[in-house]
Amino acid sequence: MTESGTHLASINKYRSWSDLEHEEKILVLDFGSQTAQLIARRVREQDVLCMLVRHDLSVERIKELNPIGLILSGGPESVYGETAPKPDPEIFDLGIPILGICYGMQTICHASGESVKAGDVREFGRADCQSIDPNADLFKEIPEESVVWMSHGDQVENLPEGFVSLAKTSTCPHAAVRHESKSIYGLQFHPEVTHTKFGSQLLKNFVRTICGAKGTWQIASLIEREVEAIREYVGNRRVICGLSGGVDSSVVAALLYKSIGPQLSCIFVDNGLLRKGEVEQVRNEFTNHFKTDLHVVDARDRFLDELAGVTDPQQKRKIIGRVFIECFRTEAESIEDAHFLAQGTLYPDVIESGANADGPAHTIKSHHNVGGLPAELGFELIEPLRDLFKDEVRAMGLELGLPPELIWRHPFPGPGLAVRCLGAISEDRLVTLRDADAIVIEELHNAGLYREVQQAFAVLLPVQSVGVMGDARTYEDTLAIRAVETDDFMTADWYPLPYEVLQKMSTRIINSIRGINRVVYDISSKPPSTIEWE
Ligand SMILES: Nc1ncnc2c1ncn2[C@@H]1O[C@H](COP(=O)(O)OP(=O)(O)OP(=O)(O)O)[C@@H](O)[C@H]1O
Ligand SMILES: O=c1[nH]c(=O)c2[nH+]cn([C@@H]3O[C@H](COP(=O)(O)O)[C@@H](O)[C@H]3O)c2[nH]1
Ligand SMILES: NC(=O)CC[C@H](N)C(=O)O
Ligand SMILES: [Mg+2]
């Protein structure tokens, strides 16, 4: 759903959502916000198709796409800066409703001739919003006072002519605005994040009431469309699919299987960085349950040799990305006419890798399947889930009939235990980590909490400390336990595991695993931390 190129544009041409002139839809003009896709996803929650497009998409192209409304996203720049991204000025004459969020609202006001300036006070996080006009259609069914989430340094000083203020906070006099006669709205806060309590209602008001959407779009129609698009795009060529047994690649494999059946071969790489019992589990599921043409590649030595002595997280990720592709390439030699490589890349992988060229989003970490890919790929990429979030992919998987155990499995990153074994990786340290991780997951199941947390795992730290075991001094490694709750993996909070569960995990790990004499619990949220440690 991202119109226009990414840095992989030349090899990633597959786009199934771009020619949907006849579908009721909203377009989000992306000014580089980390949460731009979240806006799209909140609109889709209203059963309305929503796609991200370049911030400067021409009015001609917008007319062709025929949206019922436009949303201007936030972004890291300042509208008064020399390099500030700007929309096509004619969008304001299209006559369709427009909602600007943060940078988007500042852009609307700037374009209407009023000054936007660095505010005296920057607002990050929670703010109390008070509506000035509670009857405004944008604020329908929203209390007069409610909590909103802000993230801005700039501020609209004076309203442009024709605009009125709809809401304020203690430091932001124009937290929400609208044009008196045109259907143009602006919000200084972010309705797309869950911390804005009535954000979904607000977007619903915009989409359903103001844009008049009927809400007929369903995840099932996305599946149908993807299946058709894949069939047409692939023709009679062959697709290899990097299959990890995780949710995303399983959904991709199921989609491809539905589309092109026998033209699909799946490649599962055993990179030596997998969890306990994972190879057997994937082999079973995908030969017994799915009956796909599955190739299991034993690349354990290859990965471990290449990673020997490497401690830098970004370097680890780059090496893993490259070796993955080399394995796919070598294995594909035995698969006749393998033209496409399908991956289960999701939107958070793309945005965190800084790979979305639509806006100047920053690189947080290079996901092995995006920023970690080598320049010369040797395949054409197909990534049907590239614009979706985990929970949307899960809904798709359930709709496609995948088993619920698979759908609700915690995500496991492609670089696997490599990014949870901090410092240099060795076979011994991996065995230690794998065993500890298995205990964490088992105890989570025992406590009936596996589905309560969205991701949990163990992290082996290169930090030794002194202990005493059986009257003898020890000087051994530290293990961290991480468990998070999150909707979409873009933001997350640490999960308050009950003490007795932590106690069982800790006792079992220290008693049964050699080399660990201390267990700690990670109590950091994302942001400012990330879910994985590297
Ligand atoms: N061991 C592997 N063998 C082959 N392909 C892999 C492997 N690990 C990851 N990949 C590829 O990289 C993509 C991204 O990995 P990622 O972990 O994000 O997704 P996933 O494993 O499919 O799902 P989940 O997020 O539930 O773990 C996968 O969808 C898959 O295409
Ligand atoms: O396939 C993947 N390749 C990667 O390189 C990668 N890095 C992080 N993750 C997963 O993404 C989600 C967000 O993780 P972070 O908060 O650590 O960025 C979490 O679910 C992480 O497990 C990855 N998945
Ligand atoms: N989140 C945003 O859109 C921020 C807009 C602008 N960069 C500011 O600081 O005000
Ligand atoms: Mg995975």
TrEMBL record:
* Enzyme Commission code(s) on record: 6.3.5.2
Q: Which reaction does it catalyse?
A: XMP + L-glutamine + ATP + H2O = GMP + L-glutamate + AMP + diphosphate + 2 H(+)
Binding residue positions for ATP: 244-250
InterPro entries this protein is in?
Answer: Class_I_gatase-like (IPR029062), GATASE (IPR017926), GMP_synth_C (IPR001674), GMP_synth_GATase (IPR004739), GMP_synthase (IPR022955), GMPS_ATP_PPase_dom (IPR025777), NAD/GMP_synthase (IPR022310), Rossmann-like_a/b/a_fold (IPR014729)
| Keyword ATP-binding among UniProt keywords | yes
Which keywords describe this protein according to UniProt?
ATP-binding, Glutamine amidotransferase, GMP biosynthesis, Ligase, Nucleotide-binding, Purine biosynthesis
Q: List the molecular function annotations (GO) for this entry.
A: ATP binding; GMP synthase activity
Indicate the segments forming the GMPS ATP-PPase domain, all copies: 217-409
Show the GO cellular component annotation of the record: cytosol
Pathway in which this enzyme or protein is active:
Purine metabolism; GMP biosynthesis; GMP from XMP (L-Gln route): step 1/1
Q: Which residues form the active site?
A: 102, 190, 192
User: What is its quaternary makeup?
Assistant: Homodimer.
Under NCBIfam families, the record lists:
guaA_Cterm, guaA_Nterm, PRK00074.1
**PANTHER family in the record:** GMP SYNTHASE [GLUTAMINE-HYDROLYZING] (PTHR11922:SF2), GMP SYNTHASE-RELATED (PTHR11922)
* Biological role: Catalyzes the synthesis of GMP from XMP.
Q: What is this protein called?
A: GMP synthase [glutamine-hydrolyzing]
Lineage runs: Bacteria, Pseudomonadati, Planctomycetota, Planctomycetia, Planctomycetales
